[in-house]
Amino acid sequence: MKQTILLPLVVVLFIYTARAGDKNKSDCYPITSADLVKSAAPKFSQYPSKPENIIHPARVNLKSNPIARTFRTVLRQGASEGPNFAGHYTVVGWGCGSSCCAIAVVDAKTGNVITPDSFSITSGVELDADDFEPNAGAGYWGLRYRLDSRLLIVLGSLDGDDNRAGAFYFIMEKGRLKPIFEVKVKKHYCDEPGD
Fold this sequence. Notes:
Shape: globular
Mean pLDDT: 86
Number of domains: 1
Radius of gyration: 22 Å
Helix content: 10-25%
Number of helices: 3
Number of strands: 10
């Protein structure tokens, strides 16, 4: 008799748990391009910049930023390729671990190194958005930028913080990266025990 009552109870519990899991499936990692798209998000065309033909970029100014001396080799190598962002700037990215990208921008006219004020790295462990802004000529997985625009988009978790995950928009203004918009994504690890 106990088995007769227990079996239907187990079946009902299983069905309820399965449906609850399906209901929250959209809250699970990974973050996709669809999660990052917002109609109010800035567009590259809203922040035009005239591409400049700089044949010999300035030497990287190692005194212009605290990180410049530490990462001088990658900065020099990236800057030597010439501008790829906002007319006369060069976005330089480098790996800092598994699915991790550090970023700096080098002014091809002055050699000054510019870094964002609000973060040091972006982590893409939870990111599956390679098709986000496919027309941006970015050379690094978590960064989207163009030579003819002052807009820079950073994807992932800033400083590896899951509470700061999404797409973050900056514009180059007066030699600084100014934050102007963000699309935060709240997701969690659904396949981990305890979730």
